[in-house]
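[Discussion] Sanity-checking designs against the backbone

I'm trying to build intuition for which residues belong where. Below is a structure token string of 341 positions. I'd appreciate it if someone posts a full sequence so I can compare it with mine line by line.
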């Protein structure tokens, strides 16, 4: 698998038999729908693509997530949801025997997953837990974080469901589990192990559950969703409905680059052109073109900054230079790509 963008002459829903779909910023934002998400996913299912929703959110149970998706017009069964809570429970199994005491800091989803794995869930460091499982929940506060710190100081293993510093909500970007984990880490000096993306654990679990031939990862974050795709050997689609922008794609580190870029989930129903190298350092994608000269990105004459082909050409040009040991001046990269319309 190359480190750049790839092309598909057929719609992605026809090429891949399973989509591993992130939730926040992709299927919905907080409790609000994302435009075209229901249509894109429903139409992809109609073409034979199966869906598993893979989320770093560990606060909710799969049944609750499935109910919310169904209410937004995306018919979903609980077994089509894979959470970081389930991944964290699997990580605990790698070291702890059943019946061990685990202090859970998080929501109902994490409590349920840890109990289902055979562990005794406790809420106090005085219960002498051998591990702390920490996941995001809006109700998590100082008292719970302090209990986690006390337990870890006494030798408990710290397992984080994920290390996302932020989460997209209907009101904006809020602190994520990684920010809360950072508070515990600052107090204890102990670096936790993480079960969530960018570790590809959940992707592999979902593919095994579905028995898929070839899976496509879909996400809005480069440092988790798309980094997890790269590290796990999966192909990744970045949709521009959440945290990261098309400009971020151009400046992405090699391990966080997408393979495809789409405005929203209608991208599943489209073919995707592959940029081509041309003379004098130019890269073209259909009518769009871009190159890098002395570290500065140049776009072809009359470039429409909202055109995804411009984004693709710019990514190809920038990534080629970086892969050859060069650098890109971020100031030369404009805001690119259109928000979902």
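Best answer:
Here's mine. Compare freely.
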């Amino acid at each position: 698998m190359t480190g750049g963008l790839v092309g598909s002459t057929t719609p992605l829903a026809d090429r891949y038999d399973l989509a591993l779909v992130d939730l926040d910023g992709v299927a919905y934002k907080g409790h609000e729908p994302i435009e075209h998400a229901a249509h894109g996913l429903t139409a992809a299912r109609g073409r034979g693509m199966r869906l598993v929703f893979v989320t770093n959110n560990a606060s909710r149970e799969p049944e609750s997530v499935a109910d919310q998706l169904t209410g937004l017009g995306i018919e979903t069964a609980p077994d089509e949801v894979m959470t970081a809570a389930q991944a964290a429970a699997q990580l605990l199994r790698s070291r702890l025997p059943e019946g061990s005491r685990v202090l859970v800091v998080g929501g109902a989803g994490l409590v349920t997953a840890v109990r289902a794995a055979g562990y005794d869930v406790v809420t106090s460091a005085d219960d002498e837990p051998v591990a702390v499982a920490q996941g995001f929940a809006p109700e998590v506060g100082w008292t719970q974080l302090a209990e986690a710190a006390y337990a870890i100081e006494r030798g408990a293993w710290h397992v984080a469901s994920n290390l996302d510093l932020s989460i997209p909500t209907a009101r904006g970007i809020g602190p994520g589990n990684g920010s809360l984990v950072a508070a515990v880490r600052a107090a204890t000096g102990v670096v936790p192990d993480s079960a969530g993306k960018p570790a590809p654990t959940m992707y592999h679990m979902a593919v095994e559950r579905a028995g898929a031939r070839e899976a496509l990862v879909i996400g809005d974050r480069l440092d988790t969703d798309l980094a997890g795709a790269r590290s796990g050997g999966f192909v990744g689609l970045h949709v521009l409905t959440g945290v990261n922008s098309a400009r971020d794609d151009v400046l992405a580190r090699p391990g966080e680059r997408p393979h495809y870029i789409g405005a929203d989930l209608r991208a599943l129903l489209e073919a995707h052109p592959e940029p081509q190298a041309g003379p004098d350092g130019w890269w073209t994608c259909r009518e769009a073109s871009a190159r890098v000269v002395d570290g500065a990105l140049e776009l072809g004459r009359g470039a429409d900054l909202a055109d995804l082909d411009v984004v693709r050409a710019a990514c190809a040009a920038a990534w080629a230079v970086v892969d050859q040991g060069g650098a890109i001046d971020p100031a030369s990269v404009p805001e690119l790509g259109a928000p979902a319309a």
